[in-house]
Please model this.
Amino acid sequence: MTSYGLLANLIVDGFVSGCIYAMLAIGFSLTWWVSNVVHLAHGGVLVAAGLVLYLFVGIFGVPLPIGIAAALIAAGVLGFGTDRLIYQPLKERRTDEMGMLTASLGALIIIEYSLVIAFGLDGATLDAGAMRTPLAPSVVLVLDPFAIAVVVSTGLVFAALTGFMHFTVYGKRIQAVAQNPDLAGVLGIDIVGVARQTTLIAAFLVVPAASFMLYNTGVRPIEALHIVLVAAIVAIIGGRGSIIGALVAGIVVGVAESATVWYLAAGWRLLITFLILYAVLLYRPHGLFGRV
Amino acid sequence: MAIDLTRRHFVSGVAGLTTASMLSKAAFAAGPIDIGFLMPLTGGSGKLGNMMMAGASLAIDEINSAGGVEGRQLRLLPEDSQGLARNGIDGYRKLVDVDGARVLVTGWTAVVVGVAPLAERDGVYLLSASTASPAVRGISPNFQSTWMYADDSAKQILPYARNVLKASKLGILTIVSDLGTGISKAVHKDWTEAGGKVIVEETHQIDETNFRAVMLKMIAAGPEAIYITTSTGKQAAQIVRQARELGYQGYFISFGAFEDPEVLSIGEKATKCFFSTPAFDAATSDVNARAFVESFKAKNGAPPNVHQANHYDLIRLYAEIARAIAKGGDKISADNFRAAFKAKFPTYEGVGGNYAFNFNDGSVRRSEFVKTVANGRFVKVADLT
Amino acid sequence: MQYVIHLLITLNIYVILAISLDLLVGFAGLISLAQAAFFGVGAYTSALMTINGVPPFVAIAAGMFCAAALSGAIALPALRVRGIHLLIITIAVQIVTTLLLVNWADVTGGSAGVPGIPRLSIFGMPLSGVSFLSFATVCSVFVYFVMWRLLRSPYGKLLQAMRDDEIGCVALGKNVAAMKISAFAVSGAIAAFAGSLYAHYVTYVDPRSFDISISILILLMVMLGGAGTLRGPVLGAALLLALPELLKFVPLPLGVGAALRQLAYGLILVLVVFVRPEGLLGHRRTADAGTSA
Model:
């Protein structure tokens, strides 16, 4: 393989990782935008969904669609539960920003270590099997059915979400609440109900990312903080609540990280992500697609 | 004022604890011999530490039911280090000051490096059957390892890879740790001296799970064999699986840490992996080793692994040294222990093969095997000298 | 009694750390999860310089300076933002610092760390055991006192005013940017001082002694004891250091002890915010009591 062949492979691989990053981030970004909650437990919800999928498919041996349904239920219950038990009561008490962030961090730690106790530190991995056979080994090594499945799913999820936001009454209500909650309240929109719907949507949105991670690099409970860190960084870079922003930022971060490996050791990938974040915060504090 | 308040609270709490432990000591005035077991029992390495303790406990049980050491019973005092320097020092202080242990079984680089200077000052002797990092080589006259340093053991497989597998172009995937760097240097040197060529060297982080990018880079160079330096089975399994998914057909070579059930879980993809490991085999025909395997199975319900054999041997060796000291009418102290160890056991034959100690730098030479993965099991394919 | 002395020295070091974070969290209203990074910067700078023959107290000052510079840099982009942005950027700084300590092995010794750090000595008398405990106690009392004075100075009052009403401060023509940067710098320098004490006491530093779990622990000390008071973090540090020592005498199922402890930390974080958001020793702040702290 030539040096440029390697770069092409790395970029394709980074694009695929970027799609997963975008899916990690979108739920976090929506919750932040609509409910004004920094949902750090998002990382825990994602890991939980992945491990539930593993439990059903890897251990109980049920077919994948049933496993995904179980993961959706688990993510929904956990995401909704965190919101109802922690975030909403604290908002009603008008807890300050510091308190909200602390509680959110606490929720993440609780979920993370409950999962450690239940599933062990090593977490779980499943084998994608034949999905991982390169389609054109002589041209691009990393292009296999699995990569195509990731990209297509991401496209579908983001298209569906955009359609939902712009063409359904539910989506329009969510936008109204996010942009001006006071006005939305005056207009008779059920703000609490809309926030609940958003919480559920955000929770369901972790499942595709969790599934792909389970079949790719595996999911480990102790990565929950790292996952929500990536989600938050992508959401900040893309712009709070921006769907297209999350997609673009996810792919930018994924490709930048992967391309870094071309000339640096792989350990420095994270550093590149942070440098992008630092630059965005310095020069575009509201993100690439953020509304000021 | 505030400081006074909390200080008092704190001291009284600790004083309470101390009294409690003194009482328990008085109750056993006839005097069991205490062995501190300062190992990770919880946290990231807790699983491994507990596994090792099972080997040590079996040896203690056997020795005690056979009458102990010159009539005195052995007692293992476990203390959780979590493999971290700070917790290790906390645990060391408790074992040495509160419990009065003079010899500790310990492990993990940060803990050993953290407590070694304290041990030297306090007159405490440290034994380890789990520290493979060359960073602890020669750290203290009060430290002796019974597990080969990774840079020594890692290169054992190289002649086999060169002469039997006929590999020439080697890639080295180094984990960014003291262990990884040490192994990587030793492998590089020996491979080059054996006439092979190291054509690509890459690194990965300790907690890395995604090896696709780094594997692409390595595969692009076209190695015939890749040496992997990670010491966790989970990571080794991920590396091999992800490389196979990218179409890598060549060999993987590694050292003892490769022998982990996680590697077997990737199935077919784990073929063409070869590694060297200390000469312990649960399917052995050696009489002593056979007896150990059987009683371990009877107690724990599963056959022992190499770490459990190492810790079993370590406690047995400890008891032999303690017996020699007792026969001479001396107390167990670091100096007496070192002297008796040097005089009586420059070599030792245990269930984990033969040990030859080098007291100058605290290292050991052990007999080793080459193993590979076949039909979902680790099997021995050759002896190493 | 070496064991008790050891625990008390550790307590003094963590008291200094908790007070340093309280300056940010409690008094300036700025969240940070990078405190262990500055702790580490101080420890490593001090360790590496003294090993290479620099006098210890010069090395300690250098460590404090490095940490202050790094800490101040955090506040640069955080000027226009707070809350989540600050949280994420401090986590980033924490992780990058750990990454550097592990990967820049030529200088930092990598994951094996730096052993053989010389002990401190004052007037030719080497400090260890009781004498080190006395020194560490003097240090923590000194830091407590300095912080107490600082918070009663006009600067301290302004910091607390910024916490309660940032926009109001800007409107009054106060330089909020300079205040945030200086608060971070002072806090980083104090944490680095604690790091130097740690390095010279333990005589060994390694990256995992300064990772994000330590940052979370320090935050927990402050929130539990009472952010915005000086006594609070002292109590928080004592309670959270005593907890694991006491748990050593409670039989826990092997293998999950560390996870249970972390779980308990998470529960405490959430419970404190619900039950006593001002912490054990904090005083409840009412909406109109803003600047009268």
Q: What stands out?
A: The longest helix of chain A spans residues 3-34. The domain at 3-283 of chain A is CATH 1.10.3470 (ABC transporter involved in vitamin B12 uptake, BtuC). The interface with chain B takes residues 1, 3, 5-6, 9-10, 13-14, 17, 120-122, 125, 127-128, 132, 134, 137, 141-142, 144, 216-218, 220, 222-223, 258, 261-262, 265-267, 269 of chain A (CB under 8 Å).
